[in-house]
Amino acid sequence: MRVLGLVCKVRRRKRYNSYQREQGRIAPNLLNREFDATAPNQKWVTDVTEFSVGGRKLYLSPVMDLFDRQIISYAIGSSPNLELTNASLREALALLQDGQKPLVHSDQGVQYQHISWRTLLKDADAVQSMSRKGNCYDNAVMENFFGHLKEEVFHHVRFLSTGALATALHEYIRWYNNERISTKLKGLSPIQYRSQALAA
């Protein structure tokens, strides 16, 4: 591919990078690449990804539950600011039942180092975990989700506006949760897998 000048668009990385401040001082890598969970709301992962449409940017901040790889909450906005990430976290935390204290894993982006993010976690008795600096494999499941999303939605469609892309992202996440099957989930979608597991 290099000789022929070919580029693979499926895993082509051009992503918002928010590394700032002190690195590795806020939280250790407690997740430690253990991406399986035995119950809902045990382990969550999150990140921010960037899209460019006609010179304008759009950002997606999802929270995924590692139990069934379901996107349990997300926020879409024109800026990768604190409100974007905090909004998706607040929505996820609102789903918790009594006694649930998830491990919440992210990279070392400035939003996740900010006191407002840490306060939301503390108030919910959630535990913060962070990838090591510049190590995308420490959050590989979320990176994999972004790769599929961009291949299945973004790379093959020419969006005329960020509004059109936002609509497509809403629809994709609905489809991903309810209909997109996964071999990891025994051929079920995330919501189907959770329903069967909880009914067992």
Describe this protein's structure.
By secondary structure, this protein is α/β, with parallel strands linked by helices. It has a single domain (43-199), classed as Nucleotidyltransferase, domain 5, CATH 3.30.420.10. The chain contains six helices and six strands; from the N terminus they run ββββαβααβααα. It has helices at residues 82-93, 110-113, 115-123, 140-154, 162-178, 190-199; strands at residues 43-46, 49-53, 56-65, 70-77, 103-106, 127-130. Strands 1, 2, 3, 4, 5 and 6 form a six-stranded mixed sheet that branches. Helix 1 packs parallel to helix 3 (115-123). It is globular and about 50 Å long. The model has no long low-confidence stretch (mean pLDDT 92).
Task: Give a short synopsis of this structure.
Helix content is 34%, strand content 18%. With 200 residues, the protein is of the alpha/beta class. Strands 1, 2, 3, 4, 5 and 6 form a six-stranded mixed beta sheet that branches.
Give the helices and strands as they follow along the chain: EEEEHEHHEHHH
Structural class: alpha/beta
Q: Tally the helices.
A: 6
The span between the termini is: 48 Å
Query: Would you identify the regions where 5 or more consecutive residues have pLDDT less than 50?
Result: none
Please describe the biggest sheet, giving its number of strands, its sense, and whether it closes into a barrel.
Answer: 6 strands, mixed
Overall, the morphology is: globular
**Integer average pLDDT:** 92
| Computed CA radius of gyration, to the nearest angstrom | 17 Å
Per CATH, what is the topology?
Answer: Nucleotidyltransferase, domain 5
